[in-house]
Write a structure and sequence with these properties.
By secondary structure, the protein is an all-alpha fold. Helix content is about 80%, strand content about 0%.
Length: about 325
């Protein structure tokens, strides 16, 4: 009888212990669920706090073990989107270093949980951040860091026009004409945004006009022609390019090209003598080079306006002796 009572007590004790363990596990699972639900409510409004809640949930689930696996998996599945939201907020606040760290986390968890939507959004976002950071380094006169950072963007996406615009600026800073030209062409070829295309073309005009005009002013006319023809390829209506290119053609004795280029300038210039004078002067110089005194004199007479009065007058009265 006593032996039977002992067995009953042991059985009851085991039952109560098992029941207590189950109750404790159930409480812990409920606590983990509470953390999970709290994270869901603030994923967009406070993603930093949501990350902490999700991590707390996962840590608790790990302690509980198998009974909490479903909650643990659900929590892990929310990390990718939450980190994406956190990184997006940091990027908006110009915290680029923080944004990079958390976009990488979004990518990691997106790959682990096969979250195609987050992966689709995160890759271009991280590429943009790398481009922004590279641009910042360039503005801070740190071209090596700028290129290293941009390389990270290029490793992820070689078909992003914004990245190639930044690459073009890095080449401009290094005065690599070949690099600038290649980056502009790449940007134009892949861009689907007219504003990006226009920005690339305008940058090309500005860069090669600057190099070309400096060369012409230094009497390096061959170099001027090379750079100004490239500038003209990006904008055939740029009047500054046309007048400098006409000067450059005159400098290398390509008289017909000088006349043709200057006439294009006149065609698009305002019908104001003072503004057309610069083109007429180059036309006069070209005709003079060709030995056509009549047309040279007529052209220089049309150039006798504004700042070209003295130079045109000298050509007419002293050099060509027009009318004599």
């Amino acid at each position: 009888m006593m032996k039977g009572m002992k067995l009953i007590r042991v059985a009851l004790l085991g039952f109560f212990c098992f029941g207590s363990i189950q109750m404790i596990q159930a409480q812990d699972v409920n606590e983990a669920k509470t953390d999970y639900n709290a994270a869901l409510q603030i994923m967009k409004t406070d993603p930093a706090a949501a990350v902490k809640s999700l991590q707390s949930c996962i840590d608790l689930c790990t302690k509980i073990g198998a009974p909490a696996d479903s909650v643990k998996n659900a929590a892990r599945s929310k990390f990718a989107e939450t980190y994406y939201n956190l990184a997006t907020n940091q990027a908006r606040d110009k915290n680029l270093d923080g944004a990079i760290i958390n976009f990488k986390e979004a990518l990691k968890y997106g790959q682990e949980t096969n979250n195609a939507e987050v992966l689709k959004r995160t890759t271009p976002a991280l590429v943009r951040i790398y481009a922004m950071q590279a641009n910042t380094y360039l503005a801070q006169k740190e071209p090596v860091k700028a290129q290293e950072t941009l390389n990270l963007a290029l490793q992820m996406d070689t078909l992003n026009a914004t990245v190639w615009l930044v690459q073009m600026r890095i080449f401009q800073d290094a005065d690599s004409a070949a690099g600038v030209e290649a980056a502009i062409q790449k940007c134009i070829a892949i861009s689907k945004n007219p504003n990006e295309t226009r920005q690339a073309q305008q940058s090309g005009v500005k860069y090669f006009l600057s190099k070309g005009s400096k060369a012409v002013n230094a009497s390096k006319f061959d170099e001027g022609v090379t750079n100004l023809e490239k500038a003209l390829a990006y904008d055939e209506t740029n009047k500054d390019v046309l007048v400098y290119l006409a000067k450059a053609y005159n400098g290398v004795s390509q008289w017909d090209k000088a006349i043709e280029t200057a006439n294009k300038g006149i065609a698009i210039e305002e019908d104001v003598p003072e503004k057309e004078a610069k083109f007429w002067f180059e036309i006069g110089f070209a005709y003079k080079g060709k030995g056509d005194k009549t047309n040279a004199c007529e052209s220089f007479k049309k150039a006798m306006v504004g700042q070209y009065v003295e130079n045109a007058k000298y050509e007419i009265e002293v050099d060509l002796k027009c009318g004599k």
